Amino acid sequence: MSANLKWDGHTHTKFCYHGNDAPSEQYVDRAIELGFTRYTISEHPPLPAGWVQDPKLMHELAMPSEELPAYMAYAQSIKRQYEGRIEIAVGLELDYLQGALPFTEAIVEQYERQLEDVVYSVHYLPGKGGSMYCVDFTADDFAANLLSYYGSMEKVVDEYYDHVESAIAFAAKLPMRKRIGHINLIEKFALKLPPIDEAQIRSRLTGILPKLKQGGIGIDVNTAGLRVPSCGKPYVPEWFMQACAAEGIELVYGSDAHRPEHVGTGWDWFEAQLKRV
Q: Any idea where the PHP domain is (predicted)?
């Protein structure tokens, strides 16, 4: 990325039901105060009906389908409101939905002309009972429904990175700017679950590098893990940032802000890594 571009490329809005109902002006005003010159609004779009079994959790994960047009109009209005003060990019944090890719394709097709930015993330893996489970809900849920199903952290981690590779293949076809969200989200509960072999992570991420380069896909250098006590580090390893930079793969800072005060958190760490790479 340009050394002169201070960009928060992963943020949320009042349309996120596991976030905060603050208006986007509070997020963007904070970004301006902190000296950001580009700001991507990247809300979670709707999910297929019954994507996860728990109706309450389903409600919290993503906006209902009928709200997507309102969100897109809202993001466009924020873009217009701040024109000349900060560049606002209208985007979505799309999910890789194994077995339901047409659902995502339909969203992209409907809003292709408006979407400037896509963060493409893996949040869900098949688990106990053949249902989908969040890799980032709670450590107890992970242990009960994913770790018990796969039998070892090694197998869960491999399944996760298999999904990431499939997400990269899908993202490569998207016509707008795109990047993979929090590529090491699987480490969110690292301090509460059995340890993950660092050699396995290094091997899988190294194998992903040429796929990112070939697909023209960037990396969301997501610092939200710094705010998570069970993780305590960004969701992108420093060595991987260096490897991406060497391959010309775009590195975009992402606060993953779900509250206005999250905007800009971890930027100092990101800036320090940029100087090293």
A: 8-224
